[in-house]
Amino acid sequence: MSENDTIFGKILRGEIPSKKVYEDDDVLAFHDIHPVADVHFLIIPKKFIPSLAEATFDDGPLLGKMLALAPVLAREQGLTDGFRTAINTGRLGRQDVYHLHIHVFGNRPGGSPLKVMLGRD
Ligand code: 5GP
């Protein structure tokens, strides 16, 4: 599958809009269009990696950067009392968009804890 085929490829190229949370040379973060919590954003690599199943050890620094950004951006978005991360992988992992992404989502302080499961059906 080519990057052209994914909606996130289009977002990366600016062909469709997104509500940007963060961007640098390696990654882009933007709000999910269908949030499952008060705050819900996605961190994606600019490099096209279809899913975590296709990531290699060489991608380690990039994956580490994405993961390390999660708490920084979560805090900036007001998630100061915890949040959840998820990487859906493959068909049985309920991945819909085949451009690797980390979901970061949570409720604001004083809100309710997240349900045990992601909750999307
Ligand atoms: P997945 O199921 O692949 O882990 O998650 C894909 C996510 O991308 C879903 O949470 C979905 O709401 C989000 N999404 C799909 N299309 C768009 C879009 O055009 N813009 C944004 N911002 N999010 C999208």
What does this protein structure show overall?
This protein is α+β, with helices and mostly antiparallel strands. It has one domain (3-106): HIT family, subunit A, CATH 3.30.428.10. 19% of the residues lie in helices and 20% in strands. It has helices spanning 7-12, 60-76, and strands at residues 20-23, 27-31, 39-45, 84-86, 102-106. Strands 1-2-3-5-4 form a 5-stranded antiparallel sheet, with helices on one face. Strand 1 and strand 2 form a beta hairpin. The longest helix has 17 residues, at 60-76. It starts with 6 loop residues before the first helix and ends in a 15-residue tail after the last strand. The model has no long low-confidence stretch (mean pLDDT 94). It binds guanosine-5'-monophosphate (5GP). The site of guanosine-5'-monophosphate has 12 residues, from strand 2.
Bound molecules: guanosine-5'-monophosphate
Helices and strands, in N-to-C order? Answer: HEEEHEE
CATH architecture: 2-Layer Sandwich
- End-to-end Cα distance, whole Å, is 25 Å
Helices and strands in order:
Blueprint: H1 7-12, E1 20-23, E2 27-31, E3 39-45, H2 60-76, E4 84-86, E5 102-106
Antiparallel strand pairs: 1-2, 2-3, 3-5, 4-5
The structure holds guanosine-5'-monophosphate.
Guanosine-5'-monophosphate binds at residues 7, 18, 30-34, 88, 94-97.
